[in-house]
Q: What sequence folds into this?
């Protein structure tokens, strides 16, 4: 039985659900893979808990958060004002799970610092947090290689869909001629409501109420979220060093609801599509834009809880993968996928 | 630069195309992966060629076959009546690529013997040949483990779709509640023509002429091909030791063309579906049967050159993967995928 010690930073939507998954799966993982995943530390924005001897009970950590509390209140070993960077800098652990909120505006902190610290200490990192990858893709990969650590981020692109593993591993040897993806749920959700005749205000309010849209919504609606995912796809799968400046971004905020309704009447469905198109010199043009997809399109049937990616290749035909993700559990579980991929 | 020496058995539809892929990709693979794939030996039913010093030119091997010839005529090193088992038993090589025709009737020979010999000699094996896996799944895996060799067979299930890698790797940690797949093209091809009003005789003749149906067609039309693929999926992904006897098989031969036409009029599309449904005791019921799929079904839009698989899971939502495979190249290229997966 191999024991793997995990430190989890960020106990929001994803971190909390990962705790529930770790709790539910522990016995099964021991049986199937001879692997004992022990959560030794966890931090949220108010404090942290760390117990290298006995580990934390992930179910109890999740319960503290469901009730609006903080892991700092974890019995015995929780401490207020003991923040993530300090925990990551000192904990005896094997893997950092970094699930703090995406925050590109502030240099992707605190996630970026935590990931840097972990890699320098030789910890592997699994993260669904786009921010650090978008602002420091190359640097973090160099740091990981230097310290013989693995950096995994399968959950950054399209929730629980293994879009990166598919592109990086299963398409090895192929040339990707074209890549198209619908990598988030919220823009499709809003556009479907507009197509149904709802006003912009009603549609965005509804999306807020459903927990699909966060903050003022601009991060998603103006296409930044999709662009960030494209930056990661371009670096990781298309092997093209890419930053946000390289992406041509059109959000959905200027869309005319009447055009959305007309498209629906034609049997088409608008989705915010990210695309990479290979040019004759081998480089890719990268774009984010709302596109009306006909029912013939491989991504033309995506429902409100579905995301997808399509790779058109030279030797593996055209491969499309779609996920139906009714809750955020699959996105959270990508951290488990990454950990198992490292150790199994 | 790492050199990997390949021996290829079987130069039909897939083996010949793999030679073309190896020829086209050699420089690229050296550049991208520091990997030099050298074809040192090749065999067809009439003879073999082997050149451990210089390797064979895969383009020349393919050309010999396109013209209806045999690799035994390969200049200098080709020999008539020198058959695959002898080549595999003696060649200095790292990987056996086994692409001989599926032949379950004769104990999956000659593929099975070649794979056994290769594994015993410590060669890795990559094969799209279902036969040996269906009749000796457990034995071959034990043999591989014993000799520290890898046995890969991604191309056995749904052409170039990485259905096995998706299920075995990307769904690690999950419980698969339901698996559904459309793993071959020919039955859908025939049923689409019947739904269009063609007679059975015309439809099967057309399928023969298009190269979609082989022999008397019974292997495909009676559901054996789909069942063989389900046996491999059940063993490899569902971790349920399975043989053909465990599968409930209904082919398409008893289908009434009028029912197919009626389904089309209802907006449904018949496909020969293989399914695994998890029971309360954790086992799976396994079946092959023609099913009318509505356009709401994730596999309900498959065209005549498309295959797909769906995994409904507990923690990764429902993931569907579809391949559009206009030629057999993707099926052939799975051997390259497998080799790169071993070495990269």
A:
């Amino acid at each position: 039985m191999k024991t793997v010690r995990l430190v989890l930073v960020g106990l929001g939507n994803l971190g909390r659900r990962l705790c529930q998954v770790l709790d539910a799966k522990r016995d099964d993982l021991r049986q199937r893979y001879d692997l004992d995943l022990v959560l030794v530390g966890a931090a949220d924005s108010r404090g942290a808990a760390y117990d290298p001897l006995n580990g934390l009970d992930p179910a109890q950590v999740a319960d503290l958060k469901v009730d609006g509390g903080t892991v700092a209140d974890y019995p015995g070993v929780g401490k207020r004002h003991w923040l993530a960077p300090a925990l990551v800098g000192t904990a005896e652990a094997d893997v950092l799970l970094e699930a703090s909120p995406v925050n590109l505006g502030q240099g992707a902190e605190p996630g970026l610092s935590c990931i840097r610290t972990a890699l320098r200490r030789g910890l592997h990192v699994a993260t669904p947090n786009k921010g650090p990858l978008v602002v420091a893709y190359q640097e973090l990969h160099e740091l990981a290689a230097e310290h013989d650590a693995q950096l995994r981020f399968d959950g950054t692109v399209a929730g629980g869909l293994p879009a990166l593993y598919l592109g990086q591993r299963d398409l090895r040897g192929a040339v990707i001629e074209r890549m198209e993806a619908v990598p988030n749920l919220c823009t499709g959700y809003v556009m479907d409501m507009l197509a149904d005749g709802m006003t912009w205000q009603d549609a965005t309010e509804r999306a807020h109420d459903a927990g699909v849209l966060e903050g003022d919504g601009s991060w998603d609606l103006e296409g930044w979220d999709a662009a960030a995912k494209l930056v990661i796809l371009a670096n990781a799968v298309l092997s093209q060093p890419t930053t946000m400046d390289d992406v041509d971004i059109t959000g959905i905020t200027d869309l005319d609801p009447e055009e959305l309704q007309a498209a629906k009447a034609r049997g088409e469905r608008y989705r915010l599509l990210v695309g990479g198109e290979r040019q004759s010199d081998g480089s890719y043009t990268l774009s984010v834009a709302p596109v009306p997809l006909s029912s013939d399109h491989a991504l033309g049937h995506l429902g409100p809880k579905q995301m997808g990616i399509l790779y058109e290749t030279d030797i593996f035909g055209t491969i499309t993968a779609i996920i139906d993700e009714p809750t955020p559990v699959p996105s959270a579980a990508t951290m488990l996928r990454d950990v198992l991929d490292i150790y199994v």
